[in-house]
Amino acid sequence: MASVLLSLQGSDVIGVAETGSGKEADVAAGSYVRLRVILLIAPTTATDISLPAMAHQYHSLLVLLLAVAVAGAGAATPRQLFLVTQAPVTLTNHHGQLLTGNYSVNLLWYGRFTPAQRATVADFVASLSSPAPAPSVASWWATTARYHPGAARLALGRQVLDPSLSLGRRLSEADLASLAARLSPHRGSVAVVITAPDVLVHGFCLSRCGLHASASAAAPAPEKASRGRGRFAYVWVGDSAEQCAGECAWPFHQPTYGPQAPPLVAPNADVGMDGVVINLATLLAGAVTNPYGGGYFQGPAEAPLEAVTACTGVFGAGAYPGYPGQLSVDAATGASYNAVGVAGRRFLLPAMWDPKTSQCSTLV
């Protein structure tokens, strides 16, 4: 009889099923086949960067199939290892509006951040349109131009500080839209709200690490699918250092769920802010390729797979659940990175789905 072992590690569920009769399992006279199948499954992500373990769990299904054929009285054939992956993700162009042209990215810092922390994110945004040695942040961002009729050039705009938490320590999604509206938004800008580690945002760490949406400049309120005039795109990302770094700052922190591996050294020596950069990169790519719910995505509009969330957990070649892939390592600090930005600053950026190849593309 053929036995199949199913191990759903991402959900911590293990089950064993036996199927087929001895006759059905026979592949040759006096022989049988035993199949061992290991499935590593993780939830997909959407316009919200969803949990659990957003950064280190995959949208794809990885199946490791180990077949051992034993013939006759114990004579065995060589083991055969097969790697079977899910069909490639394909993002569909729903022919809605994309962000094209020149955009300023304005930042609102809600809570207390050090100058070094603010510089990390500001330099990342500035790097999106600044040439640098390969592999560069700008070359990573250039993939968004392949989303026809894309090509949004992002530049660092103004920065606003709110260290006194003017709306309190607990924020709703409507509060995020109100904060974004303080950045004098217009159609040529993207507002980004970054919340400090001690700020509690509805759904943060429970179901998401950040979000992108749109709102009306006249009356700020989340409008992910409406089509009124005067809309602006905005992004929110939370610093997860104190609340859920295992979910929102992987691979720079030990994961809360799934395969366990030692965390990587953060390139800017700040687990929370290097995690913010990963999530901000993810959401900016989604904001320009699917700003109002009618752009490029797969699945339902309410929970779409977008440019980067379609490739969750992949940072370098050879990535698999629990392993971000082959990355560059700084010889002096041991920090892992895959992109270079302004002034030689280094970042770790997630893979992005490439419309030309229909595959998740990495820088290294």
How do you describe this structure in short?
This protein has about 375 residues and is of the alpha+beta class. It contains 6 helices and 21 strands.
Describe the structure.
The protein has 364 residues and is an alpha+beta fold. It contains 6 helices and 21 strands. Helix 2 packs parallel to helix 6.
The main β sheet shows up as:
5 strands, mixed
Structural class: alpha+beta
Unreliable spans are 1-46, 52-77, 223-229
Element-level helix/strand string? EEHEEEEEEHHEEHEEEEHHEEEEEEE
Q: Beta-strand percentage? A: 25-35%
Number of strands: 21
Strand order of the largest sheet: 9-8-11-14-13
What integer value in Å does the Rg equal? 23 Å
Can you count the helices?
Answer: 6
Indicate the overall shape.
globular
Can you give the helix content as a percent range?
10-25%
Topology record:
Blueprint: E1 2-8, E2 13-19, H1 22-25, E3 31-40, E4 62-71, E5 75-76, E6 80-85, E7 92-93, E8 101-110, H2 115-127, H3 137-141, E9 152-162, E10 170-171, H4 173-181, E11 189-195, E12 200-201, E13 210-216, E14 231-238, H5 245-248, H6 271-289, E15 296-297, E16 328-329, E17 336-337, E18 339-340, E19 346-347, E20 352-354, E21 359-361
Parallel strand pairs: 8-9, 8-11, 10-12, 11-14
Antiparallel strand pairs: 1-2, 3-4, 4-5, 4-6, 7-15, 13-14, 16-17, 18-19, 20-21
Helix pairs in contact: 2-6
